[in-house]
Design a protein that fits this description.
By secondary structure, this protein is an alpha+beta fold. The chain is built from eleven helices and eight strands. The chain has a four-stranded antiparallel sheet with strand order 2-1-3-7, with no helix packed on it. Strands 4-6-5-8 form a four-stranded antiparallel sheet, with helices on one face. The longest helix is centred in the C-terminal third of the chain and has 21 residues.
Length: 326
């Protein structure tokens, strides 16, 4: 399905587009934020040109996509010096002048489809990246990554200042490279990105069981039950989009007879132990080749050139180098 590009991006200021933002909601939420007493003034939808004049606006999602990962970092003991390699540099950081809390924005070169048009692979990548960055940055885990500080200082009424850091948006592969080899996602998702992916996969697994085939009433209640257990549950509209996406995929699978092959991770006949054993055998079979690949890269050859020499993709070569051929 072709991704729908909505006209909201036409109203995004040139400065923001120059630093990576590729999509914007055609009718976004926006807010004046908090008043002097610290009371939230609420938000409402408005034309995009008007939204860019308010201190808070919807940057973390559009009607059908996630164009950027946003993290709310409230640590008092941090600054831009933390971006020394362990964490990718965001496209921009907008600081609250009163307390130095900040919203960090990682713009995506290809926004990830959400809701009814979601796809499992990019959703999984987004969740993994979001969980890692949130944990490393010690970000606020209850933040829903929707409304963000307006990076235009004149629109923030003097509340915020912005450091513009990187012009090129990130691909999911680039952000994934920053995750150390062997790092594992938390069993219970901690971020909005992880919760979204967890509900999608749990719903797919539930409706993929033969006893639940075509049970769309049960599908409507099962993810909602899981969502209620989260510290910060997803909103009803977000949850409804996930349910619609699951129903669309599973209807297609039922019609084609491929229900049991929806996701490879559901095919657990051999179990984890068998997977580890077969993986160790494969690594042993390719140990000589992998050692030569690591040596070539360490000698200064590019991963692309090494991949062509051995008939492998750049990603496969990068994985071998990270693993150290062990």
């Amino acid at each position: 399905m072709q991704q729908l590009i909505l006209p909201g991006i036409d109203f995004v200021p040139i400065q923001v587009r120059r630093y990576g933002l590729r999509e914007f909601h055609h009718y976004p939420l926006a807010s004046y934020g908090k008043n002097a007493a610290g009371i939230w003034l609420g938000s409402r939808r408005m034309p995009p040109a008007q939204a860019w004049t308010l201190p808070e606006l919807e940057l973390g999602r559009t009607a059908n996509s996630i164009p950027a990962l946003i993290f709310d970092v409230d640590r008092p003991d941090w600054g831009l010096d933390i971006f020394d390699g362990a964490v990718p540099v965001p496209n921009w950081a907008t600081w609250r002048r009163a307390n130095q809390h900040a919203h960090l924005v990682y713009a995506l070169a290809r926004p990830v489809l959400r809701g009814e048009q979601a796809r499992p692979t990019p959703q999984g990548w987004l969740a993994r990246i979001g969980e890692y960055l949130a944990a490393t940055l010690q970000a606020d885990l209850t933040y829903n990554a929707v409304l963000a500080h307006n990076p235009l200082e004149w629109a923030s009424q003097g509340r915020y200042r912005t450091d513009w850091l990187r012009q090129e948006p990130y691909t999911l592969a680039e952000l994934n490279e920053a995750i150390p080899f062997g790092w594992r996602r938390p069993w219970r998702p901690l971020t909005v990105y992880g919760r979204n992916d967890a509900l999608f996969r749990a719903g797919m697994k539930w409706t993929g069981r033969p006893a639940h085939w075509g049970d769309w009433t049960g599908l409507a209640t099962y993810p909602a039950t899981l969502n209620a257990e989260f510290v910060a549950p997803l909103g009803e509209r977000e949850l409804g989009g996930i349910v619609k996406s699951i129903r669309r995929i599973q209807t297609k699978n039922l019609q084609s007879g491929q229900t049991q092959r929806t996701f490879s991770f559901l095919q657990a006949a051999r179990g984890r132990k068998g997977g580890r054993v077969s993986g160790a055998k494969r690594r042993a079979d390719t140990l000589e080749r992998d050692t030569a690949i690591v040596a070539a890269v360490q000698a200064g050859e590019s991963m692309r050139a090494v991949g062509r020499a051995y008939g492998l993709s750049d990603f496969a070569v990068r994985h071998i180098v990270k693993r150290g051929a062990i």
